[in-house]
């Protein structure tokens, strides 16, 4: 607190909660990547829009970089503060502001968790359909900053489909009210959509109006064991044609081994190279018969080796844990992560190339991959051998990531599907975006944040 800049900030905002203890700096200065040593100047925890606006204006006046911070569950280093930045944590701004039954919208502060949004929506008989395993700790502001997807994109799409309006403090300190919940609005550029996925480099989201929808019909969960990689897309094609899918997720035998060791329960006897957990509408007996027929067809074709249908909500949750528990089970191994996507039609050819690349370049590494096969999003986790130094491990992984980015470029894919670019992937942005696009993106950033105080070093 002896820093003159912080003293001046407290002078402007005497009621601002400001943390400088070493434990707080470490906790708030990093995200789930754990690759950078956190070294923020301090942690600011504003309680209002006015305080956020004042902090950003102070940052411009004193040329202090700001790292916006939500639940810090990101995997790309987007919330890392390692260069003396002020961490702007929105965790105290976590309230539900309003519910509109006619518009079917929920207005919330950006620090609210995804789980709290789900709970508030359910209280009104509706749902906010974006969902993934980190729901209890990630924040809506962070979801918006990375255009989060999750396990139900196949049915509902990404975060951007469900944002009706935003309040944002731009990098120049101006408060912007974007779209105001309108369904139709053809009055020029949609700056709301520009903010979604911008990783805190254009403005700080302080409030969001979320669109809600009806709960899905009764559903059923099925786990399938598959004999080989080629069967993945065959099974997906059959199930998508015959059923109304809510989710279609896959993981490998290596992933299952880790999640079982972490406490999940085995659901299918024996070991198979690939597994699929799918959830589909099951409104009547006819729908269940269609599901069984689809499964039997896949078995007859040799695309499925075994399967199980949940007989209760508890068993459905246990089947889902086999997929949703993977990331948590891998965390102690400090994995190097790739989060990539291709068009669904390009998945078979890309998977073949990717599999060959990973086998060739990681012959002695444990590689765990899983993902949302129904929307072309794959997560690759490379586990560090205990005897290998961190720097050497990351160097080897980055070499492979460069090759992977080149493969993605050939298939028209993206180096980041849903976790953003941050610090981890900025060297590979050119594999996804053209030079002209990147130049325009830099120009947009300059307009919204002329002094470059918001999340510098991230994205570019």
Automatic annotation (TrEMBL):
If you read the UniProt record, what top EC class would you report for this enzyme, in one word? oxidoreductase
- Please state every residue range assigned to the domain named FAD-binding PCMH-type: 36-215
An example Pfam family from this entry, by short name, is FAD_binding_4
Q: How does it assemble?
A: Homodimer.
Q: Catalytic activity annotated for this protein?
A: (R)-2-hydroxyglutarate + A = 2-oxoglutarate + AH2
| Necessary cofactors | FAD
Keyword tRNA processing applies: no
Q: Which UniProt keywords apply?
A: FAD, Flavoprotein, Metal-binding, Oxidoreductase, Zinc
What Enzyme Commission number does this protein have? 1.1.99.39
InterPro entries from the xrefs?
FAD-bd_oxidored_4_C, FAD-bd_PCMH, FAD-bd_PCMH-like_sf, FAD-bd_PCMH_sub2, FAD-linked_Oxase-like_C, FAD-oxidored/transferase_4, Oxid_FAD_bind_N, Vanillyl_alc_oxidase_C-sub2
Q: Does the keyword Protein biosynthesis apply?
A: no
The protein's name in its UniProt record? D-2-hydroxyglutarate dehydrogenase
User: Any one Gene Ontology biological process term?
Assistant: respiratory electron transport chain
Database matches in Gene3D superfamilies: 3.30.465.10, 3.30.70.2190, 3.30.70.2740, Vanillyl-alcohol Oxidase, Chain A, domain 4 (1.10.45.10)
Q: SUPFAM superfamilies from the entry?
A: FAD-binding/transporter-associated domain-like (SSF56176), FAD-linked oxidases, C-terminal domain (SSF55103)
């Amino acid at each position: 607190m002896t820093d003159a800049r912080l003293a001046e900030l407290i002078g402007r905002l005497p009621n601002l909660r400001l943390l400088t203890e070493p434990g707080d700096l470490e906790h708030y200065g990093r995200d789930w990547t754990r690759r950078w040593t956190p070294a923020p100047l301090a942690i600011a925890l504003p309680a209002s829009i006015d305080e956020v606006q004042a902090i950003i204006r102070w940052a411009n006046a004193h040329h202090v970089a700001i790292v916006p911070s939500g639940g810090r569950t990101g995997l790309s280093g987007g919330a890392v503060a390692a260069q003396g930045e002020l961490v702007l944590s929105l965790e105290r701004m976590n309230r539900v502001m309003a519910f509109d039954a006619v518009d079917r919208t929920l207005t919330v502060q950006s620090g609210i968790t995804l789980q709290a949004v789900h709970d508030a929506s359910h209280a009104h008989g509706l749902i906010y359909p974006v969902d993934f395993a980190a729901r209890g700790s990630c924040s809506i502001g962070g979801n918006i900053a990375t255009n989060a997807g999750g396990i139900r994109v196949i049915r509902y799409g990404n975060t951007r489909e469900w944002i009706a309006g935003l309040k944002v403090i731009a990098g120049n300190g101006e408060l912007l009210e974007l779209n105001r919940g309108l369904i139709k609005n053809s009055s020029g550029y949609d700056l709301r959509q520009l903010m979604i996925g911008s990783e805190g480099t254009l403005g700080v989201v302080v409030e969001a109006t979320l669109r809600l929808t009806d709960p899905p019909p009764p559903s059923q969960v099925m786990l399938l064991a598959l004999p080989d990689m080629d069967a993945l897309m065959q099974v997906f094609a059959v199930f998508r044609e015959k059923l109304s899918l809510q989710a279609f997720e896959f993981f490998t035998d290596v992933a299952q081994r880790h999640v079982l060791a972490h406490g999940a329960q085995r659901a299918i006897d024996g070991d198979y190279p690939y597994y699929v957990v799918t959830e589909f509408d099951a409104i009547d007996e006819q729908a269940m018969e269609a599901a069984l027929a689809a499964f039997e067809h896949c078995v007859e074709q040799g695309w499925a080796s075994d399967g199980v249908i949940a007989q209760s909500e508890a068993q459905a949750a246990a089947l889902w844990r086999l997929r949703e528990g993977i990331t948590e089970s891998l965390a102690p191994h400090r994995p190097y992560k790739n989060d990539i996507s291709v068009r669904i039609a390009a998945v078979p050819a890309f998977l073949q190339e990717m599999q060959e690349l990973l086998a060739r370049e990681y012959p002695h590494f444990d590689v765990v991959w899983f993902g949302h096969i129904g929307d072309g999003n794959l997560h690759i986790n490379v586990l560090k051998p205990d005897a290998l130094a961190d720097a050497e491990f990351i160097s080897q992984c980055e070499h492979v990531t460069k090759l992977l980015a080149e493969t993605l470029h050939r298939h028209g894919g993206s180096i980041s599907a849903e976790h953003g670019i941050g610090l981890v992937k900025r060297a590979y942005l050119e594999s996804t975006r053209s030079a002209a696009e990147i130049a325009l993106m830099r120009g947009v950033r300059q307009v919204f944040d002329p002094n470059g105080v918001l999340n510098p070093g991230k994205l570019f």
